[in-house]
Amino acid sequence: MKRILINGTYAEELRIAIVTGKALFNLYMGPSDATTKVGNIYKGVVAKVEPSLEACFVSYSRSKQGFLPFRHISEELFNGNKGNREPHTSKSAKSLHEGMELIVQVEKDERGEGSIQKGATLTTIIALAGNYFVLKPNNQKSGGISRTIEAARRADVRENLKQLDLDPKHALIARTESAGKNVDELQWDLNFLSRLWDLIEQAAKSAKGPFLIYKQDDLITQTLRDHLGKDVEELIVDDEEIFERTERYIKQVMPDKKVELKLHRGKIPLFSKYKIQDQVNSVFSRKVNLPSGGYLIFDSTEALLSVDVNSGKATKGTDMEETALQTNLEAGENPGWQHI
How far apart are CA 300 and CA 142, in angstroms? Predict the structure, then answer.
């Protein structure tokens, strides 16, 4: 059985687990007060252009500046120079100027502390996520189909996409949930996203920046949208306020989803009752043991997360090469760490 467990009893943190049987499949964690700005859309004002960094700094609120790399700037901004064959970096440096207003979306939150704190990373290549699609406004070349859609169903999805009434200026990415939906259902989702973009553009024209235009869905809404499919049979929440909010969202936005919603009560914590707390704890361990005797080592830096697979005491193969292969295969399918 596949379940979604929402743990909201901690004042400072929200935890959401996707569980298959007794195995932790995905884990999402975030501040309970939803302080993340990722996905939010602002009307920003260019504060400084730095060609040497191939980026500019953009004020997106009264007290916050973000970092906008030139490679994250849409070609739509250069439509006035359609015959210009200059590299994207050169066009960005020449087209941007202090005081210029842009619609920007937050890609990464601020990170670091004190003197080494980095501002949020911004983009003008906007992405609006719906139930079945991600709309990429004014970005004709970025459409596609989710890789998680089975090969046998991709042809049907492509055929449905051809029948949709889509503004040619925009592009769509078909999400996994779009498979199996009829054209009317898909068109409804597209219309919603198109109207949302129109409202964002209208709001951007209504006043001078910087200011917040659109606030992204919170962690719970995103998780329900992405995972509340036919294979999820139970949704269990341990906080009454979150339970009521979740129930209201499902009734209003996803009334066709057949899932049993439960409020967890009792002295045993939710994650302990469903025997996944040890798996959650292992997410934060540098070393993760594999059943055969091998193990994984995780080392995180600012630039990357390295995963070192070691055979350790594993003896699955007939020789060293076979043992290494079997250990790597086991590491790739082990549900205890895939969500990291």
Answer: 30
Give the list of residues 6+ apart from residue 90 with CB closer than 8 angstroms, or none.
none
Q: Which strand (E) or helix (H) includes residue 62? A: none
Q: Which two tokens stand for residue 337?
A: 């760490």
At 101-125, the pLDDT tens digits run: 999 999 998 887 666 678 899 999 9
At 30-56, the pLDDT tens digits run 877 656 788 999 999 999 999 999 999
Q: For residue 55, what are the CA distances in angstroms to 86, 138, 270, 329?
A: 17, 21, 45, 41
Q: Taking the alpha carbons of 214, 67, 35, 222 in that order, is the dihedral positive or negative?
A: positive
Please state whether beta strands 144-145 and 295-300 pair in parallel, antiparallel, or not at all (unpaired): unpaired
Contact of 57 with 70, CB cutoff 8 Å:
no
Dihedral sign of CA atoms 217, 219, 220, 223 in order: positive
Q: How far is CA 278 from CA 22, 99, 284, 285, 295, in A?
A: 11, 52, 11, 11, 16
- State the DSSP string of 214-281: EPPP-HHHHHHHHH-STTEEEEEES-HHHHHHHHHHHHHH-TT---EEEE--SSS-HHHHTT-HHHHH
pLDDT digits 0-9 by tens, 287-313: 888 878 888 888 888 788 888 888 887
Sign of CA dihedral 37, 39, 44, 49: positive
Find out whether the peptide bond into 210 is cis, omega within 30 degrees of 0.
yes
- Six-digit token pair at 208? 């001078």
